[in-house]
């Protein structure tokens, strides 16, 4: 029998009230890994109550900002000490390359250290009003219990983008990880306790989206929802939070353009295109899935990209030389295959790839695929596929590519490959996306804020800016004069 993992509530493992579990499998070979607790509304309620008690507990509420920073730094160190175990867990759960997950775990402590450094720098302001006898100042306060709902593609990194800033400013949290990747978030909750946070500050309830996820979104005890996932789920969450007048940070899907100009270093740009769409088997929100190549370099770029795509080593994500692992689960592989078939029926030509495989392991693999003869109105160009499928299109002028690149519902990221300094800045200004990379792709740092435009989201993650998402602003007016209240029927300033 596979090992069982319970919810983590109030500082300890707690079995699901329903007594039910679900199996998490390795997508590289379909072997069962463990059973996770199937969370229900009752479990979620227990976790939110625990987080509320922790929020009200003087051990947490009255902890100095400096000491909160110490705890965050300690948590970062513990993640660093356990990085190999965490990386392996994620690779087994979602099929991403062990190399990639090791890289993510190596940078994860930096997120906690960054917010540890900011913890004692969250300050209010003294505002000069028109009456100098009045002292007006602002304070930033924690919100309360924050619900975090995360996807499977980078479980701990995407959880950390929410958890580190939320704890930095004194909130507590209930996390609902993806049903495909429950393991590392539970382990993280253990490390939170080991770091010395009071019990209940971080809780994790595992389970399915429409069940545990929906129950969390609907829970009246939440002060905020921070969500990363598909635009469809994000939109549903936004309707609920709007009706309840609570905030939400939503990091959603993308269909990002990766644009190569005639004046680019084409060999380098081709690697940038490969990095944009074939890394993580295309299962990244920032995937550069729409590739635009200027007419003068179109043939050469296509040849370089398709040659590299054909030589990509597909196989066991634990192996050092593997470059492309499986999709995270069977339905995801079928979705990718369905989109490529749809592309064919829309008139696209498959230049490279276009077939599902089992990777020789019995897993859910899909070949790196390049589609040509595509136009901006095809569904394979408009909708997020979330797999290793690039749609490549030629263009002639800068104005034309700006119009094509911006003609999308999404606005998460964009890549530009050029040696023209003026053009680089011009494109950064003209592209309608929250992150612009010039002569690089898929770069990220806890220090650099990012925001999805249009259907790619609401709110900011990372950087100092995200702290505003986890605090509320209070304005305090203190009359320092002894003067009697003047005319009570007019507004004071
Ligand atoms: P998803 O929306 O299906 O699921 C995300 C999470 O939401 C999971 O934990 C799921 O259980 C939960 N969920 C599902 N239905 C729910 C409901 N009704 N109520 C509450 N919770 C619910 O997304 P996914 O397939 O897990 O992830 C892939 C998507 O995430 C892609 O669209 C990708 O672009 C996006 N993503 C965005 C970013 C970003 O930073 N913008 C990063 C990574 C992934």
| Whole-number total of structural domains | 2
Number of continuous helical runs: 15
The computed structural class is: alpha/beta
Query: What percentage of residues falls in helices of 4 or more residues?
Result: 25-40%
Mean pLDDT: 97
CATH class of the largest domain: Alpha Beta
Small molecules held by this entry: nicotinamide-adenine-dinucleotide
The main pleated sheet reads as: 7 strands, mixed
Looking at the structure, what is the overall shape? globular
CA-atom Rg in angstroms: 24 Å
Q: What's the arrangement of strands in the largest beta sheet?
A: 15-18-19-14-13-21-22
Number of separate strands: 27
Quickly give the CATH architecture of the largest domain: 3-Layer(aba) Sandwich
First-residue to last-residue Cα separation: 70 Å
CATH superfamily of the largest domain: Aldehyde Dehydrogenase, Chain A, domain 1
Strand content: 15-25%
- Based on the structure, what is the oligomeric state of the protein chains? single chain
Uncertain regions spanning at least 5 consecutive residues: none
CATH topology description of the largest domain: Aldehyde Dehydrogenase, Chain A, domain 1
